[in-house]
Amino acid sequence: MAPLPRRALIRTALAAPVAFPARAQTGRPVVVASKLDTEGALIGQMMLQVLQRRGVPVQARLQLGPTAVVRRAILAGEVDLYPEYTGNGAFFFQMDTDPAWRRGDTAYEKVRTLDAERNDVVWLKPAPANNTWAIAVRADLAGSANLRTMEDLARHIAANGAFKLAASAEFVESPAALPSFQRTYGFTLSPERLLVLAGGDTAVTMRAAAERLNGVNAAMVYGTDGAIAALDLRVLEDTKGAQIVYEPAACVRGAIARATPGLAEWMAPVFDSLSLTRLQALNARIVVEGRPVAEVAREHLRGLGLA
Q1: CATH fold for the domain made of 133-235
Q2: Residue pLDDT, tens place only, 5-42
Q3: What are phi and psi of 165, to 5 degrees?
Q4: What mean pLDDT, rounded, does the chain reach?
Q5: How far apart, in Å, are the Cα atoms of 216 and each of 95, 179, 196, 208?
Q6: What 3-state DSSP class applies to 274?
Q7: SS3 250
Q8: What is the pLDDT of residues 135-161, one digit of tens each?
Q9: Long-range pairs for 64-68 at CB < 8 Å and ≥24 separation?
Q10: First-residue to last-residue Cα distance in the chain
């Protein structure tokens, strides 16, 4: 499951005006939204169900639209609560070159502070899962070559170990993607170590690695893609912060946060439970097994004792 575009494309999209009708700020249900992607809908469902169990009147507007639309909706007061990624603050506030975005702790603190001060939007504690551009390798290669991190990969390539990456042209060419990995970790992939595929669908790149297409044993992925575990791939950890960190967190209008003092406490166990591997597994139940989003969300919450 590839997330919707959330990098420089967001900056352009946010320039387009989106009109929302005025709404009363009291005496109405809490409006819970999400973006169009599967992961956003899954986390949005969890948030919705937690509020329902606490007796909070809610209105669902899940899979409302892309990043720009949902962001404008919360700023306009049309949406009260939705899952957002910490790294998007880099583009919301036009600070994508700031190194703070490349560490989970500093990315969260920066977006939390900026959005509170400028927009009265509250960011609750994020999940410990980074859904950013990443490189995943076949499990057999990870085991035989002892590959766990991007530093391990750089060492493996320097030793002329077997490695061929399936990736989109955007990933290969964008300075923020593969070139950033190469600069940060000091390696270079020659053309024969690349299989460049049309489009940016990570399902295609992962399938190429799983099937060893043209000798491919690695793939461009997003960190929490649902098919990673199903295809027996391993995401290499970006220990030096070559990529902006995108950890999902509940993003809440300040007025709703103040009117619902238990909100942070209610959401904390949900987001604490969403590790990288757990999100991969939950996404897989939807995109690989074809199970309904609401059912997968309810099952996970039940396992936490929250449903």
Answers
A1: D-Maltodextrin-Binding Protein; domain 2 (3.40.190)
A2: 333 334 333 433 333 333 334 468 999 999 999 999 99
A3: -105, 130
A4: 91
A5: 36, 19, 11, 6
A6: coil
A7: strand
A8: 999 999 999 999 999 999 999 999 999
A9: 64/33, 64/34, 64/35, 64/36, 65/35, 65/36, 66/4, 66/5, 66/13, 66/35, 66/36, 67/4, 67/5, 67/6, 67/10, 67/13, 67/35, 68/10, 68/13, 68/14, 68/16, 68/18
A10: 26
Domain 8-130+244-303: homologous superfamily in CATH = Periplasmic binding protein-like II (3.40.190.10)
Secondary structure element (H or E) that encloses residue 141, with its range: helix 139-145
Single out the residue of 28, 17, 19, 33 nearest to residue 65, CA to CA. 33
Q: Which residues of the chain have pLDDT under 70?
A: 1-27
Q: Note the pLDDT of residue 24.
A: 34
CB 228 within 8 A of CB 206: yes
pLDDT at 164: 98
- Tokens standing for 95? 């600070």
**How is residue 120 written in tokens?**
């009265």
> Would you state the pLDDT for residue 28?
86
| Predicted local distance difference test score (pLDDT) of residue 27 | 66
Residues 6 or more apart in contact with residue 294 via CB below 8 angstroms: 45, 49
C-alpha of 294 from chain center: 19
Residue 262, pLDDT score: 95
Q: Where are the domains of the chain?
A: 8-130+244-303, 133-235
Identical fold, 8-130+244-303 and 133-235: yes
pTM of the model: 0.85
> 134: helix, coil or strand?
strand
Residue type, 279: L
83 neighbors 252 (Cβ within 8 angstroms): no
